[in-house]
Design goal:
This protein is mainly alpha-helical. It is built from 14 helices and no strands. It has helices spanning 4-31, 36-41, 47-57, 63-75, 89-124, 129-143, 146-160, 185-192, 195-231, 235-243, 247-276, 278-283, 289-298, 302-330. It is globular. The termini are close together.
């Protein structure tokens, strides 16, 4: 196959996949009990006022009509307006998505730093101490929910030891956010040369990033180890050992051949965590897109909830496209015609 074929397939399938996600999400959100009109007007609203607002919002229309109207607005880049914040959903997400991207990216970077070396060492020596350590870590971290690990880290490093700042958002209340450039407090502070704010942002990131890193490292570890164990019996490894290459050089060759599988897992994790780090954001009051979506669902803010789904789905599809490109770059066999 050529590189162009799968890439074109991804691009062509982008819109149908996104439409499928929107359709399923729209129908599921409509099944959630709750009417936004009484919530918007308050408990003292009259029946006439609620009926008038429902008509203005189009909530009195049939479900297919509501879906069609939403798709028409979506085609024009309009995600609607959140009744909670009174802002356009696109504006709200533009503020909150960078916080989620910052958290997920650093969390996966830590997961790679843990999972790849541990999986490589365990795969190269399946009966060594590192392999037993990897088994214990994979079993323990894989069995514990991420929010439980988050609460445990908060208890140990904030409550008992006092090493971590309070888990109350992206910055301490006494620290002013840097001028917005990328939306990431850490990056924006570094660009501005504000070391104090960068350290404060890094301190707030420590525990949530550690939580995501510890839990996300498990599938990376398992995939790396499985791939390396399979490559141990390959001809190029036996040839490298016969040539007398050092274990470090042989491991480097093995890792190079295992990278496509690792990249696929990381890409899947990245797309999953964009919409799946909700509990971590809630525990640490992170103020990211996940926390925004939870609030939207609880308050029947349909536009906000759907906007979150649309944006995260688009980002996930873009990540999968990037994974395909990286896989083609790493594995020459995929580029054979």
């Amino acid at each position: 196959m050529t590189v162009l074929g799968p890439i074109l397939f991804r691009l062509i399938a982008f819109v149908p996949q996104l439409l499928g996600v929107v359709l399923v999400s729209f129908l599921l959100l409509k099944l959630i009990p709750g009417d936004p009109a009484p919530m918007m007007l308050g408990p003292l609203a009259t029946t006439e006022a609620i009926a008038k607002l429902r008509a203005e919002l189009g909530l009195d229309q049939a479900l297919p009509v509501q879906l069609w109207q939403y798709l028409v607005r979506l085609a024009h880049g309009d995600l609607g307006r959140s009744w909670q914040t009174t802002n356009p959903v696109l504006t709200d997400l533009a503020i909150r998505i960078p916080a989620t991207l910052e958290l997920v990216t650093l969390g996966l970077a830590l997961a790679l730093a843990i999972g790849v070396p541990l999986g490589l060492a365990a795969g190269r020596n399946a009966h060594g101490r590192v392999a037993r350590l990897a088994d214990g870590y994979g079993l323990g971290a894989g069995a514990m929910p991420d929010f439980w690990i988050a609460l445990l880290l908060i208890y140990v490093f904030y409550t008992l030891l006092g090493w971590a700042p309070p888990p109350l958002g992206r910055l301490d209340f006494a620290v002013l956010p840097p001028d917005r450039i990328t939306g990431s407090y850490l990056i924006d502070a570094l660009i501005a040369g504000d070391g104090a704010t960068a350290l404060a942002a890094l301190g707030q990131l420590a525990l949530p990033v550690a939580t995501l890193g510890l839990t996300s490292a498990v599938p990376i570890l398992k995939m790396t180890r499985t791939t390396v164990e399979r490559l141990q019996d390959s001809d190029f490894v036996r040839f490298a050992d016969a040539k007398g290459l050092s274990p470090a050089r042989v491991s480097a060759h093995v890792l190079r051949n295992a990278l496509p599988s690792v990249v696929t897992v990381v890409g899947t994790l990245y797309g999953t965590l964009l919409g799946g780090a909700v509990l971590i954001e809630v525990v640490f009051s992170w103020g990211g897109a996940g926390q925004y979506a939870v609030s939207a669902v609880l308050n029947a803010d349909i536009n906000a909830a759907l906007g979150f789904v649309v944006v995260t789905a688009a980002l996930s599809l873009a990540v999968h496209l990037a994974v395909d490109l990286i896989s083609f770059a790493l594995d020459p066999r995929l580029r054979l015609t």
